């Protein structure tokens, strides 16, 4: 019986437009903030890049939690494990590429 309530609560949570509206508004705010920062030239290039990376990371979390519902579901948290594995791959590829490019610049 408790599982039935849990399913009903999750189904209602998925169908609730409130979460989608909040996620949509947060996505718009983060996108407009990044766009405005680039257009307004209000900070140095390094600080601008760091700020945009932070805004992009927040945008990823908004997409994952409000639209893709990564915290919901039954059983083991396969979504969480897949996200961690994906993050490890991305970090390895990005920093490996940066390391190779910096090494190539030193050689030439």
TrEMBL record:
Gene Ontology MF annotations: cytochrome bo3 ubiquinol oxidase activity; proton transmembrane transporter activity
Entry keyword annotation includes Transmembrane helix: yes
Membrane-spanning segments: 20-40, 47-68, 80-101
Intracellular or extracellular location(s): Cell membrane
Topology relative to the membrane: Multi-pass membrane protein
GO CC, any one term: cytochrome o ubiquinol oxidase complex
GO BP terms: aerobic electron transport chain; electron transport coupled proton transport
Swiss-Prot/TrEMBL keywords: Cell membrane, Membrane, Transmembrane, Transmembrane helix
Pfam family, one: COX4_pro
Keyword Cell membrane assigned: yes
Family in the record: Belongs to the cytochrome c oxidase bacterial subunit 4 family.
Name this protein carries in UniProt: Cytochrome o ubiquinol oxidase subunit IV
Organism for this UniProt entry: Collibacillus ludicampi
């Amino acid at each position: 019986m408790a599982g039935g309530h849990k399913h009903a609560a999750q189904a209602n949570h998925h169908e609730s437009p409130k979460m989608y509206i909040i996620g949509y508004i947060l996505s718009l705010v983060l996108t407009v903030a990044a766009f405005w920062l680039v257009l307004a030239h209000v900070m140095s290039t390094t600080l601008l890049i760091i700020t945009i990376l932070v805004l992009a990371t927040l945008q990823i979390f908004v997409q994952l939690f409000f639209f893709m519902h990564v915290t919901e579901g039954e059983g083991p948290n396969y979504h969480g494990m897949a996200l961690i594995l994906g993050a490890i791959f991305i970090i390895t590829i990005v920093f490996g590429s940066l390391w190779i490019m910096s090494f190539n610049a030193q050689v030439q």
